[in-house]
Amino acid sequence: MIKTWLIAYRIHNTYRVNSIIYGLKQIPIIKKFLPASLYKHLGLKTFANILSALWEIINIFLGKIVYFIFFYVLPIFLIERNDLLSFLTIFAFLSFIGAFINNDLFEVSKDKYYGIILMRMNAREYVVSQFLYTIIRHFIGNMVVLYWISFMFTFPLWLCLVLTLLVCGMKIIVGMYCSYAYLHSHRVYTGNNIPKPLTVLLTICFFAAYACVFFQIYLPVFSVVILSVMMTLLGMIGLVYIFKFPAYQMMCKDMLGDMDALLLEASMSQIQEESYHQMIDQSKITQSHKKGFEMMNELFMKRHHKIIWRFAKRQTYILLVVVISLIIGVQVVPSLKENIKDFLILSLPYFVFIMYMLNTTKNITNAMFINCDYCMLNYAFFHEPKNLLKLFQIRLREMIKINLIPALVIAIGYVILLNLLGIHQIGYSLMSFISIISMSIFFSTHYLVLYYLLQPYNAYTEVKNPMYQLITSLTYFICFLFMNMRLPFYLFSFSVVAFCFLYCVIACYLVYKKGPQTFKIRS
Where exactly are the transmembrane stretches of this chain (predicted)? Predict the structure, then answer.
């Protein structure tokens, strides 16, 4: 089994190293100095291997640090319940949720396809070895991050081990459950196709985690310890079941069968494309009273209404619940009122990251490419600067409208909370509102500009532009840094508005000048 894991790791690492080298060859200045025989260069491959190993190590901890900050540290300090019992209560609920939505036993991936289907590796050894490696990663990552968290919530170090075993045990038990369910239903359950009743249960658990802390309903420490011991013991039984599970080969064929299309120059993206086509509303393909690109855009928006508006509507409903809960909370709980007041005064830079996370333009551009631009890019008139700029402006208007809905809920809720908390300065409220709206407009513009100037997709809708990936990663990193910034309110708000305006103007100019050369299908 160790040999199987090493082979699988080499496959994954080779794919990653070649991607790094390919990425270097796509950087405008560097690519001129890199020969076509670069993939044979031993020194560069060694460098890429070092980068790959570093990323593997960083990836163990980075995601967990962000996860703990956003789902534990910030909510607990916001509702002023920064104690051990609050942390343990949230941890128990979210660990249960994570065991289902972040369980890698039956994850569909290209690595599994290459190893099991193409290279005909032993399915049981491959799946089990990868699952054990994932559990070890979770164990190490949780131990290190919980050790850091222990200083914040002042709990003993032995509890780090208890909580880590709780997480790992739950993941193994869920893996056992999914294996057992496959034998009886021949359906592979992953984080992406959880049954609806279970989805409802997990959603209830998510809100219950924070509601219990808010109303001071806590899980005792001993109950969490007992739960951890139970999960650990059941997890051991689950490991035995997972090792002896008899249907890995059949399960992998069912799970990876759709990926046979790769042999016919297809890709996993076709599955996504089919799901997009299923959500197209054929009943709305009627007629439009508009002309030119306005008509083209209106028909596209009508046909893809479910795809385009689905996430924005969900975000809006969730944000409404959060805003209404906060409005009620500040009037019912006096201690919460003061705590939120202090947070709101300093929190405007936080909304850079929040608006980044809420923006849906990146997903919509994918739908645009699959269902429109992939075909239209074959026509010369589509590349003409005036036509390109016209359609860009129309699409930008639509992106802004879509993303403004959740942004308005946040902005209006922010202003209402300011007034309820006794901050009645008109200038403060006005600039807060305008700043949040400006952030939404900026991210709508930003991702549409990247789509036009760095068009990342190839004919199979795979992202093939490393510069696009680099810039989107940098965008995430910069937005995350804003959470730690403490800037004068008016300086920050005026800077945000001015930057948004300048960015939109420059973006339109760049699309007009560079779009005809850059907006194309990648090889």
Answer: 53-78, 84-105, 126-149, 155-177, 198-218, 224-243, 316-334, 340-358, 404-424, 430-454, 466-483, 489-512
